[in-house]
Structures are given as structure tokens and as C-alpha cells.
Amino acid sequence: MLNSCDKKEKTEAEEINPEVTALIAEVKSEYVPDKRVALFEVETYNKDGKVVLKGDSNLPEAVSDLKSKLAAQNIAYIDSLQLVPDGDLKNTPHAVVKISVANIRSNPAHSAELATQATMGTPLNVLKHEGDWYLVQTPDKYLAWVDKGGIQLMTEAEIQTWLSAPKLIYTDTFGASFSEASDKSQVVSDLVAGDVLEKVNEKGSFYEVKYPSGATAYIKKEEAKIYSEWVKSLNPSEENLVVTSKSLMGLPYLWGGTSSKGVDCSGFTKTIFFLNGIVIPRDASQQVHTGKLIDTTKNFEKLIPGDLLFFGRKATDSTSEKVVHVGMWIGNNQFIHSLGNVHVSSTDTTSADFDEYNYNRYLRTKRILPDSEKVIRLAESDLYEKTEAQK
Fold first, then answer.
1. Distance CA 361, CA 337 (A)
2. Residues 151, 173 within the same domain
3. Where are the alpha helices (DSSP H) in 234-293?
């Protein structure tokens, strides 16, 4: 048995082409510095003396560059690479979240780790599928899997029709839609802050709305705003960011959560900014590369409400820095964050709510500005609704 295992390992080693593997790594390093936001799953092996390239990518330019590098070195190969979306998804490369919050997972299974969430009305790019699971890319470029029950697949024409329709955004933290223009009628679904629906009509104190699935319902006017008016009125000021953050006080910590059903640390900061019209990257280790550097020395007097504080492991001679937590400054030596639940902690060593644990692993503070790189400003985007000029 031991000899058999040794032989198997040797055969696998012989099948790997180190020269081609090095070229794949070179291209991947250039085009996919963060595998969470781009797909380039390419591998190579030798079969019957021939080099075979196999895998998936949503980056045509990366695939083209790899093939050019192979040609430059006169390496012949069998091309089994697939650009996605492909197959039946070429007709429906888009999707829109059709439930209040879609759980998007690291692998195509309900038992897989929750990677992120997307609220109703969020448009997604669909790359490939395995059974009832679809690999999608969110507006912040995050790649993960969602089951078919959470999305409405759309053709190019259908997504354009959806984007051209007038919208409403649900602004209460939690709520519901109803089958009739009465809160005594049958509940159609739950709703959370940030859900976007098509505005169909008005009836008394209710809006008639249409879901991405085509279902219709009614929501209270006092719990929603006309989307185009909402984005124009947004002002991600210090005060508004703090008010939004405190509206989610006590929300339970949920790994992968980015909605008012539960949030992890970066999902919390992401939700705060989204409800103020700015889409920021998904994870703390991505958010730390956005915005303007404010502090690295615990000089908290330089901070203003809305600044993001990052925590983790500092770099050493043998280990790299690791960002693992984020919170938002709210003033008065306090920051709000999701750890256990959403709560306020202090950097004042004499305060009753002093957070010694995070104080000791503080790394830096960044300021997210509306024109920061890697953010989407909804007031200048057609992400949820085209402007009249774009229609």
C-alpha cells in the first residue's frame, strides 16, 4: 500500500508542468490580487505529452494575456478554459435579489460558510451554476454562491427593464409588505432597510410595489421613500452616519451578515455607509485599503465621526499584518462595532466601557470619502435605477 501511494504521488508530480504553472501564477498575481473579487481558477497538467489548460475565469483580458505568454514561449497547449458566463447562462447573465435578504455562501451548499448577504433589488452578475446554486458577483465585486430561491434570473432586456422602472427603497429597520393596502391583510414578505422594489402605484397611505419576481404587494408610505428622491437627499455627514449606526444598536453578530437581520463587523460598517448612499468593499481587510489614512498611533483626537478604526495583528519580521476587525468612530472617545452584538466601546482607559482588547490590537484609522477609490456613490450610479438621462 505504501508503494502504491508513493507511485501515485510521483505520477501526479509528473503531470504538473512547472513552466506553465509559473506563467499562470504570474498572470493571476497581476489580474487577481484578491480572489474574493475576481475569478481565475486555471490549472494545467500534461496528458499524453500535451499541455492542457483547464478552468474558469470571468476575466477575458487575463485569459488572453496567459495565452499570449504561452505563445511567446512557444508552448503548445490544449485549450479547455471557459470564460463565464457560458452555456445556458449566456441568455441570463444577470439576476436580482427577490427576497428581503439573500444569503450568499462560500460554496454551493446551505451548510457552507455565509460569505455575505444582498438585500432585495440588488443586481448581481451570474457567472456559473451547479444544480440550484449560482456563482454570483455582487456590486462590490464579491464572488460567492446563492441558491435559486433568493434570486430572479434575468436576460439583458429584462435587467434593463428592471433598472428603468421607478423604485422605492424601504427605510425602516424591519417591516413587512401586505396583500392589500391594509396592515390587517395577509403579509406577503418581510422587509429590511435597504430593500428596493418597483413602484407601481399609490393607494391611500400605501405604495403598491412589484417584486423582482413579478409578485405585487403594498407597503406603508411612512416606511419607504421614492428611490430617486432618496438618493438626491442623501448626505453621509458625521451626524447621519452616527444616527444610522445607532439605529442598529443591539443587532446580533452574524458571520457574513450585511443586513439588519444580523451583521459581522465589516457587514455593519458596510450597512451604515450603504444606508447613506455609499457602497464600500465587503471585508475589513478590503475596507482598510479604501479612503484616507488618518492615524496609526492612537492619536484619537484626530478622528471625526464616521472614520473607520481597524484592528488586528501588527506585522512582525516573520509575519504580515492581519486586519480582522473594524468599527466606526462616533466621537467622545467612542466607537461602535459589531462584536457579539452591535454596541459602543470606548478608547478612554478610565471609562467603564473601555475596550482593552481592541485598544491593544488597534492598527489604524481610515476616512471613507464619497470620492474614495473602490466605493460606489449611489447618487451618481445606475445600480438600482437609471436616471431619466440614462433611460
1. 15
2. no
3. 238-247, 265-274, 284-287
Does residue 215 come out as left (phi exceeding 0), alpha (psi in the -120 to 50 range) or beta?
A: beta
C-alpha distances in Å from residue 27, one per residue of 23, 86, 243: 6, 22, 45
What pLDDT digit, counting tens, does each position of 355-375 carry? 999 999 999 999 998 788 889
Q: CA gyration radius for the chain?
A: 24
Determine the Cα–Cα distance for residues 338 and 261; give it in Å rounded to an integer. Answer: 13
- Indicate the angle between helix axes 265-274 and 238-247, nearest 10 degrees: 130
**Strand 167-170's sheet: what is its strand order?**
187-192, 174-178, 216-220, 206-210, 196-203, 167-170, 224-226
Residue 224's DSSP bridge partners are 170
Asked if 18 and 59 sit in the same domain, the reply is yes
Is residue 242 in a domain?
yes
**Domain containing residue 50:** 2-83
Tell the burial category of 369 from Cβ atoms under 10 Å away from its Cβ (0-12, 13-18, 19+).
middle
Sign of the four-CA dihedral 273, 275, 278, 283: positive
What are residue 154's phi and psi, to 5 degrees? -140, 145
Q: What is the DSSP string of 5-28?
A: HHHHHHHHHHH--HHHHHHHHHHH
Q: What is the pLDDT of residues 128-163, one digit of tens each?
A: 999 999 999 999 999 999 999 999 999 999 999 999
User: Quick one: average pLDDT of 276-284?
Assistant: 97
Residues 359 and 292 in one domain: yes
User: 173 burial class (0-12, 13-18, 19+ CB within 10 angstroms)?
Assistant: middle
Residues 157 and 170 in one domain: no
